[in-house]
Design brief:
- The protein has one domain.
- It is 41% helix and 23% strand.
- A six-stranded antiparallel beta sheet has the order 1-2-3-4-5-6.
- Strand 4 and strand 5 form a beta hairpin.
- The longest helix has 18 residues.
- It starts with a helix and ends with a helix.
């Protein structure tokens, strides 16, 4: 699916949220006021028809943006090498401001989220075949659109995550580094969704004009 199609779908989702006077955060909170570290929605986000999971919560932490209300955590389903059972690997977090708008992608050390740790190149593979469908909630579709819009950026974010982890704890094994609670946030990248959509649509128009 082309990024132009993803951008068009995102615009449709934003219009649907606008008609409901809502956004992805309000959708998952469903009128509740979140307590510190409480996960929303109850039972987490399941993204029907995909191998993704996620949740939203609010808490303080090192490197937290002062504008942040809370953040989504996104996980992809993988296989545990030892048990051969399904497991989850954290891809990234998406920081959200008090207006419900995305402000930053970020990655954290493995002890923060748990799950199976995968290197950047393996996680990149899971972003190539993201599918959306009507069984998913508006917030789930919005998050999948965000992943598709920022696939290339997220790939670089994950590469930076791995580089930083090795650099800051070069004398330890990877297993020890992943459990080191002195290492929290590993990489982050600002998000401007409006500018992203404008850029994609402009590139699409320019491409179409160049082929006439």
């Amino acid at each position: 699916m082309s990024i132009a199609v993803v951008a068009t779908d995102m615009l449709a989702l934003l219009e649907a949220f606008s008609k409901k006077k809502s956004n992805a955060v309000l959708d998952v909170l469903a009128g509740e006021t979140p307590k510190q570290d409480e996960k929303f929605p109850e039972g987490e986000l399941h993204f029907p028809g995909t191998g993704w999971r996620g949740f939203y919560h609010c808490h303080d932490g090192p490197g937290k943006d002062s504008r942040e209300h809370g953040h989504f955590h996104l996980f992809v389903e993988v296989t545990d090498d030892q048990t051969m059972e399904p497991a989850w690997s954290h891809l990234a977090g998406l920081s959200i401001d008090y207006a419900g708008q995305p402000i930053e992608w970020f990655t954290v050390n493995n002890w923060v989220t748990g799950g199976k740790w995968l290197p950047a190149d393996e996680l990149r593979h899971f972003m190539d075949n993201i599918t959306r469908n009507s069984a998913q909630s508006l917030s789930e579709q919005w998050l999948l659109c965000m992943l598709s819009l920022y696939t290339d950026s997220l790939a670089q974010l994950l590469i930076e995550r791995d580089r930083v982890l090795i650099q800051i704890n070069a004398d330890s094994t990877l297993a020890d580094s992943l459990l080191n609670k002195d290492i929290y946030m590993l990489s982050h990248q600002p998000v401007d969704l409006e500018q992203k959509l404008v850029s994609v649509m402009e590139d699409t128009v320019n491409h179409e004009e160049s082929t006439l």
